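seq:
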Amino acid sequence: MSEPLLLRNDVGPISHLTLNSPRNLNALSDAMIAALQAEFDQLAEDRAQKVIILKGAGRAFCAGHDLKEMQAARQSPDNGATAWGDLFARCSKLMQTIPRLPQPVIAQVHGLAAAAGCQLVASCDLAVAADDAKFGVNGVNIGLFCSTPMVALSRVMPRKQMFEMLTTGEFLSAARAREVGLINRVGAPDALADATQGLAQNIATKLGSAVRIGKRAFYQQAELTLAEAYALTGAVMVDNMLNAQTDEGINAFLEKRPPNWPDA
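struct:
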């Protein structure tokens, strides 16, 4: 039997998801998108898991959509329009699911993150990359402008740098990707897993309910006016303060002792 397209390994409160289709550089095929969506939907209800690490098997993180699969759809009566519309709708749903998850999602990137694979990195809350990783939205090189990846990139990168990537098809180095805000940290390839795990462990030590509240508010306020954002986050702060475990955390700080937090 062949191995599953997506592997999950929970290490304490940290879930490791591995795109497991190295032969096509972990392309976001129909099946891969379905597998990721199903796993994220499960994790959304799992309060035991506090952080998610997303990575790829083989020599790349993700090369984008499966072009062979997309081309095969041209044989349909409408030349692929229905199939492609469904593909991009489901991919867009997947990308929007990530910021809505209660857990922070960290992309662990090595090798290549191209087109929809770069979109996947941009959609994650955080990203750690090997220093030899490359990032690009290179569809324009084959006549297919990366319009859907553009949505995620335009929300994390400066516009001019992002538009240059889209119109030239050129790739960014990991160092440059960090400079423009696409990724958070860069490290040696042989230290990538440890660096990502260290970041995840740091977050996992925090009060889970506070991180869940904060992540939701982080994305909500970004879509509001300044006044609306302050109104929203002020109410969120009140709700957070009403949490008994937040009370314990503040008292512990004032009393110069570690907080006594059960898993939450």
